[in-house]
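Researcher: I'm preparing a figure for a lab meeting and need a structural model of a single chain. I don't have an experimental structure, so a prediction will have to do for now. The sequence is pasted below. Please return the structure as tokens so I can convert it later.
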Amino acid sequence: MAENGEHHWWYRSTRALLKQLIEPHLPTSTDALYLDAAGGTGATGGWLTTATPTVLADFEPFALEAARKTHPGYLPARTDINHLPFADDSFDVVLCVTALCHRMNPDPAAIVGEFCRVGKPGALICLMEPGGGDWLWRSHDDVTQTARRFSVRSLRGLADDAGLDVVKATAAFSFLVPPAAVIKMLDRDGSTSDVGRNQSGLGGLATKVASLERRWLARYDLPVGLSAVVLASKPPA
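Model: Understood. Here is the structure written out token by token.
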């Protein structure tokens, strides 16, 4: 992530997708505070720091240091998202990307409950996780210590069970499902991550297709994709 996060086509497209989904709902207050939960090096959430102070909560010291250098607007906090040390009703926005899937997080439902607890009434909570369910499991998941992949329905269920009001629930990167299925069949040694593959996205083709998909997602949802995304809000007090 530290080497590829700012330049790899997937990270750039993911940032564009998250901005499209989240920016219309950002608070206008000058004292807003955001949380990038398990945000790593800031590869997917660093753009939030241009709007308002953003707490980067991650367990890995190297990631926190790398994020601090790349995105000075972060407020780094070495934190286990299974047990957030923040007070109730602290944040206006909570973003969590590809963390509920990780092996060190055994109870995703409890973590989403924590996001709801630390979010202010009306807070926006955005979850983005590996999608497609277990049938898309491949070597990338083993290398990245993934414990589970989500369907849109299962990720939405976590938000519903936490008492959140779902604004949007969709798959994303649907055009990557066929190549991911092929890679699953061909790459059986379990030693390769997608991050190390084709940083340019076939010379920019993947970036263009992702842009077209975002135009669709601006109005509609998708049932299946390599990612699952849920945008929700904490009910007002």
